[in-house]
């Protein structure tokens, strides 16, 4: 989905809301997949229950840090890479989610040019 160019008129409100919903949906799907990867990794590599695995993955993805101690080297390797992955995914998701809003704001500023 392309954004309108500087010389084009501002997108109508209904289309803008649909764009925000589309980008929001994509963002939440990306977060859900990332959360699933973390949950599976903690469950199988650190031998945690599903709820504890989900909690640890959520805390890492949100930037808070792990809750449970890591039991083996495989879990430590996974947690290290998942933490870096989560940081990139979280920042990228925020950028994707806010991009239509930021674009509309900037486009409004340049309409008079």
From TrEMBL:
Residue stretches spanning the membrane: 20-45, 77-98
Instruction: Alphabetically list the UniProt keywords.
Output: Membrane, Transmembrane, Transmembrane helix
| Top-rank lineage group of the source organism | Bacteria
**Gene3D superfamilies, from UniProt?**
1.10.287.70
State the protein's name.
Answer: Two pore domain potassium channel family protein
Q: Which organism is it from?
A: Chryseosolibacter histidini
Organism lineage reads as:
Bacteria, Pseudomonadati, Bacteroidota, Cytophagia, Cytophagales
């Amino acid at each position: 989905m392309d954004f309108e160019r500087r010389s084009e008129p501002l997108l109508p409100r209904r289309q803008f809301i649909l764009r925000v919903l589309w980008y929001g949906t994509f963002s939440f799907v990306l977060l859900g997949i990332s959360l699933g990867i973390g949950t599976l990794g903690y469950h199988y590599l650190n031998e945690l229950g599903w709820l504890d695995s989900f909690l640890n993955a959520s805390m890492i993805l949100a930037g808070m840090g792990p809750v449970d101690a890591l039991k083996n080297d495989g879990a430590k390797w996974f947690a290290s890479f998942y933490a870096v992955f989560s940081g990139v995914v979280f920042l990228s998701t925020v950028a994707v989610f806010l991009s239509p809003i930021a674009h509309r704001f900037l486009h409004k500023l340049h309409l008079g040019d």
